[in-house]
Specification:
With 243 residues, the protein is α/β, with parallel strands linked by helices. 44% of the residues lie in helices and 15% in strands. The protein has helices at residues 23-29, 34-55, 74-97, 113-126, 142-156, 162-168, 214-226, 235-239, and strands spanning 15-19, 59-66, 100-105, 132-140, 179-182, 201-204. The longest helix has 24 residues, at 74-97. The structure holds 3-methylbut-3-enyl trihydrogen diphosphate (IPE) (2 copies) and magnesium ion. One 3-methylbut-3-enyl trihydrogen diphosphate binds next to helix 1.
Length: 243
């Protein structure tokens, strides 16, 4: 990676999480069915993943299907499930070649056994890869995650502390997101990584997900680089940590 490849200043976030919103509107603008937007969204994800590796991002977490998205019309839900199944077949060899470790994060309940097997196989195959960890949040909700973590702790009788709870969450294998991007113009979290975004920097863009490209990603990275993360401290303390 050379200097001209980099956004102008500052550090690259180790973990970028993205709410990939706006597929449906992107399609409607083109008089296409919503599912065409989801397909174009897959392209945007490929692009984004490649660029994340290029920029030195270590973890990319994307919101692909929420616990609440089951409420959509059945044909749209079925199309999204098919897209995931197809992506596991088409994309995993490429991901593996690029050194990407894939994790599909979310409840397995409600998913076809064949899809659950495909997920397990893809995760197993890419488990030792180290270039970047890609978390695809599918059938995922931040509240679901906190509840399943609390249940697991209760079952084992473990003490409930911030640390034990964090370690029981479905994203415990990665550090908290440094930067959360939401495309599609809405300024809300929609039950994404609730616990882990306590101190994430947020970046909202009107860009619809299928149109998200390297330039827009770099704008988000540049905005992040300009932020001062204080974690409760004063600006002066952060600027001169020894003081
Ligand atoms: C995000 O795009 C993808 C999913 C939630 C599965 P949408 O499908 O929500 O697109 P809009 O928000 O309707 O444009
Ligand atoms: C959030 O988008 C979920 C995903 C991107 C998978 P939604 O489109 O479901 O969010 P709301 O309903 O507008 O809040
Ligand atoms: Mg949406």
């Amino acid at each position: 990676m050379n200097a001209t490849d980099q956004p102008a200043t500052g550090v690259v976030p180790a973990h970028v999480a993205i709410v990939m919103d706006g597929n449906g509107r992107w399609a409607r603008q083109r008089l296409l069915p919503r599912v065409a937007g989801h397909r174009a969204g897959m392209e945007a994800l490929r692009r984004t993943l490649t660029h994340a590796v290029r920029r030195g991002v270590r973890v990319l977490t994307v919101f692909a299907f929420s616990s609440e998205n089951w409420a959509r019309p059945p044909d749209e839900v079925a199309a999204i499930l098919r897209l995931l199944g197809q992506a596991l077949i088409d994309e995993v060899p490429r991901l593996h070649e690029a050194g990407v470790r894939l994790r599909v994060v979310g409840a397995r309940e409600g998913l076809e056994p064949a899809l659950v097997d495909g997920i397990a196989e893809a995760e197993r195959r890419t488990a030792a890869n180290t270039a970047l960890t890609l978390n695809v949040c599918f059938n995922y909700g931040g509240r679901w995650d906190i509840v399943q973590a609390a249940r697991r702790l209760a079952e084992t009788g473990a003490p409930i502390t911030e640390r034990t709870l964090a370690e029981a969450l479905a994203l415990a294998h990665v550090p908290d997101p440094d930067l959360v991007i939401r495309t599609g113009g809405e300024q809300r979290i929609s039950n994404f990584v609730l616990w882990q975004l306590a101190y994430s920097e947020l970046f909202f863009t009107d860009c619809l997900w299928p149109a998200f490209d390297e330039a827009e990603f770099d704008r988000a990275l540049a905005a992040y680089a300009r932020r001062q993360r204080r974690f409760g401290r004063t600006p002066e303390q952060v600027a001169a940590p020894a003081a």
